[in-house]
Design brief:
Layout: E1 7-12, E2 18-23, H1 27-51, E3 53-58, H2 64-76, H3 87-95, H4 100-113, E4 118-123, H5 148-158, H6 167-206, E5 213-221, E6 224-229, E7 234-239, H7 240-245, E8 249-251, E9 254-259, E10 265-267, E11 273-282, E12 290-295
Helix pairs in contact: 2-4, 3-4
């Protein structure tokens, strides 16, 4: 399951500020990715062939509750999902959406249904698999960032002929693998914190409070909207009080705007683009620093 999304990077401007640049993957990037995926799949197959077990990257399919929620949402978009989790069904849901906004909403829904991948020690009887890559066995043999898990895989592959893992050795490897998963999650959170603050600083430096920008609705709550600023990928909060100032009301846990010329109210949905301006940066816990937005008339 692959989404064609450009990758952001923060670069310094000649004036001493920051701006976000977007890198679009070309055919060379995609070729390298395919070769890396192939190497990792082959390394995993070699572990299974030699040991009947190994260190793998495992991602289970969406759980029943998440799949039911995604399927129910798809029905509201006149799309029927399969009874069991399916990558093809997820991809067809995104492709079936008629506008960029509804496609973005479908991508967000699909992402929210996915479960995280973790390092595991499994044998061929237990079964592994990586759902979003649609492979039975997958490991981290090579990567742009050398992980400790990669080195553990290298040791298993480079062990002398005839070497056998004892039960105690498998137990120790299981402990190391659990540690790798915990550290990987901690590093992702640390990187996300720094990255989010860099983007926030860049956005507030380069954008005046009077400037109108576009924000995409990510999550709808009775208290307001969680949004992302287009072009900056900065998360922000649009409180319900700001929506009410512009005539929006909360109806059945949905924000409904004033009626237009056709006398039909605007119902805000995930993926909708809204014109907003930034008001201030909240330094209150637990979500600080958080960008507070106002809805532009």
């Amino acid at each position: 399951l692959d989404f064609e999304e450009p990758e952001p990077t923060m670069v310094a401007t000649p004036e001493g500020g920051w701006e976000l640049k977007w890198e679009v993957h070309n055919d060379a990037h995609k070729l390298i990715e395919e070769l890396m995926l192939l190497a990792n799949r082959e390394a995993a197959a070699m572990l299974v062939k030699r040991y009947g077990a190994g260190l793998f990257r495992h991602q289970p399919p969406p759980d029943a509750e998440s799949w039911a929620e995604l399927s129910a949402w798809a029905v509201t978009k006149s799309h029927e999902m399969t009874a069991e989790p399916s990558l093809l069904s997820m991809a067809s849901l995104v492709a079936a959406q008629p506008t960029p906004e509804t496609q973005a909403a479908a991508v967000m829904k699909v992402r929210s249904a996915m479960r995280p991948a973790r390092y595991v020690v499994q044998d061929e009887k237990t079964g592994g698999g990586h759902f979003s890559l649609s492979v039975d066995w997958y490991t981290h043999f090579t990567s742009p960032i050398r992980r400790y898990a990669d080195l553990l895989v290298h040791r298993l592959l480079l062990a002398p002929q005839g070497f056998e893992m004892t039960p105690a050795a498998w137990e120790e490897l299981t402990r190391q693998v659990a540690w790798c998963s915990d550290r990987a999650q901690a590093s992702r959170m640390a990187e996300r914190l720094v990255w989010d603050r860099l983007k926030l600083k860049g956005f507030t430096t380069e954008t005046a409070k009077t400037d109108t920008v576009q924000a995409r609705v990510m999550r709808i709550t009775p208290r307001g909207l969680r949004v992302v600023i287009a072009g900056w990928q900065v998360g922000a909060w649009l409180p319900g009080s700001e929506l009410r100032k512009q005539g929006y009301q909360l109806v059945d846990n949905a924000w409904v705007g004033p009626a237009g010329l056709d006398c039909v109210g605007v119902v805000l949905q995930e993926g909708t683009l809204l014109p907003v301006r930034w008001v201030h940066v909240s330094l209150e816990r637990p979500a600080y620093p958080e960008l507070q937005m106002g809805l532009t008339p």
